[in-house]
Design goal:
With 465 residues, the protein is of the alpha/beta class. Helix 4 runs parallel beside helix 10 and helix 9 packs across helix 10. The termini are far apart.
Length: 465
């Protein structure tokens, strides 16, 4: 009888444990296929191009948002080569490239039927040019996923500031706002329907929904682009801004978030402590919304330029700083967006092209060939090295298709026959890069402390550089 009681007790305990684990799995936020693709990309290029690249002056953001361009036909990129743009960002290792289809001037880099301030109005290429088309074709030629940035927050040509026409309480202003909203919806439909599948659509500074007096863009995007990253809007955001334009996030940086979109009604919480929530995320968050880290390539030594301007080559970030960005973004569970900008010829400048290539080469030099690697499930993984080796970097990655599960871990190295802790942490997520003081080890082991469910480690690898 005791035997049967024990068997029944064991069965009930197992069933209860399974239910608890199932409940845990059910409550772990999971990425959508688009969010998975976004984090797998790790490196993304934002290609910034607009009319003021051709004015021969230093870029002044505040001015460009309110002062119309005096002569649209200064736009004349005689050597335009979007293939060169995409080859250059591919050399960096980017898997996604995003083009500013419109930005602060309101000028559209394509053949728009709803926005007259577009390439149809140019003398260049007899008004028949379509840089969005050229860009998308180049992306597909070189195996890069294309995305578009749609800047509707400012429009210096029409006098729009922060999504709104100047408010004066008149019917005229009301009619102008209705026209602008309809135009933004029309541009969204054109850009989402004409160029095939897109990886991401990015609305600068968010996109006011109709509840805030703005255009109703979300249903249009969802109609034409089923598997797109939508960033960002008062109604939906699939990724979140990382809280700065340094190209880095703090550690830890969780991929989960307490609200279904970043620019919600919870502004007091979001803006608190210098955007701490955007930077860190929330390990208890019910929504999967990973952070992105953005910075312009031309942001060194006090500069911060998203658009090309003359005499600025010295402010391209040095390789050492770009690697710091890589470790502080990709190595902290975030995707890095690096801003690059073609010049007035229509080409990425030589110094930028060379630096992008150096960046990609250095990433490969450091992380292209692990000394040893493994993967698996459970709270302990061990990695035996071919021989005692001096190491200085460890990469850990969860299988985020099953959600972020790990809450604490430590890595131990076998030094002279004894286990020694070489790294500890909390968040792993899509990728965690641990840079450590060089130490000679014959084996490593990863020990997971707290986790929401069974840890699933997609990569545990070791490097020296």
């Amino acid at each position: 009888m005791k035997k049967y009681i024990l068997l029944i007790s064991y069965f009930l305990m197992s069933l209860f444990a399974g239910q608890v684990q199932g409940q845990n799995k059910a409550t772990i936020p999971l990425p959508s296929p688009a969010q998975q693709m976004w984090q797998d990309a790790e490196l993304t290029a934002l290609i910034c191009y607009d009319l003021h690249v051709f004015d021969g002056r230093k870029y002044k953001q505040a001015e460009n948002r309110i002062v119309p361009i005096p002569d649209i036909n200064m736009f004349n990129p005689e050597q335009l080569d979007t293939d060169q743009w995409i080859r250059s960002v591919k050399a960096m290792g980017a898997k996604i490239a995003i083009l500013t289809a419109t930005h602060e001037t309101g000028f559209a880099l394509y053949q728009s039927d709803v926005n007259p301030y577009c390439m149809k109005a140019l003398k260049w290429r007899d008004g028949k040019g379509d840089i969005v088309r050229d860009f998308v074709n180049s992306c597909r030629k070189y195996g890069i996923k294309p995305g578009l940035f749609i800047g509707i927050r400012w429009n210096s040509f029409l006098g729009v500031y922060d999504f709104m026409m100047p408010k004066d309480g008149t019917k005229f202003q009301e009619n102008r706002q209705a026209f602008y909203n309809k135009m933004c919806e029309g541009m969204t439909e054109e850009l989402m329907s004409r160029y095939g599948d897109l990886a991401i659509v990015w609305y600068d500074g968010g996109g006011h929904g109709p509840e805030l007096g703005g255009a109703d863009i979300l249903p249009i995007v969802e109609k034409y682009q089923k598997d797109i990253i939508f960033y960002h809007n008062s109604q939906r955001a699939d990724i979140r801004w990382g809280g700065s334009e340094t190209g880095m996030v703090p550690y830890p940086c969780w991929g989960t978030y307490p609200f279904p979109y970043s620019h919600s009604k919870n502004h007091e919480v979001i803006y608190k402590n210098d955007f701490e929530l955007l930077k860190v995320g929330d390990p208890e968050g019910k929504y999967y919304m990973p952070a992105m880290s953005d910075a312009p390539l031309r942001g060194y030594n006090g500069r911060h330029e998203w658009f090309w301007e003359p005499g600025d080559d010295a402010h391209v970030f040095p390789l050492e700083h770009l690697m710091k960005m890589y470790h502080g973004s990709v190595g902290r569970n975030s995707t890095l967006i690096l801003g690059v900008t073609p010049d007035d010829r229509g080409l990425l400048p030589d110094v930028d092209v060379a630096r992008l290539k150096e960046f990609g080469d250095e990433i490969q030099r450091r992380f292209g060939n692990p000394i040893a690697a493994t993967q698996g499930e459970g709270k302990r993984l061990q990695l035996k090295l071919p021989a005692p080796t001096k190491i200085n970097a460890i990469v850990i990655a969860e299988d985020i298709r099953q959600g972020e599960r790990v809450r604490s871990y430590k890595v131990e190295g076998k030094v002279n026959g004894k286990w020694k802790t070489v790294a500890t942490g909390s968040c792993i997520g899509h990728k965690r890069i641990e840079e450590i003081d060089p130490v000679e080890v014959s084996a490593l082991r990863l020990q997971i402390g707290e986790s929401l469910a069974q840890p699933i480690i997609a990569d545990f690898s070791v490097y020296t550089y």
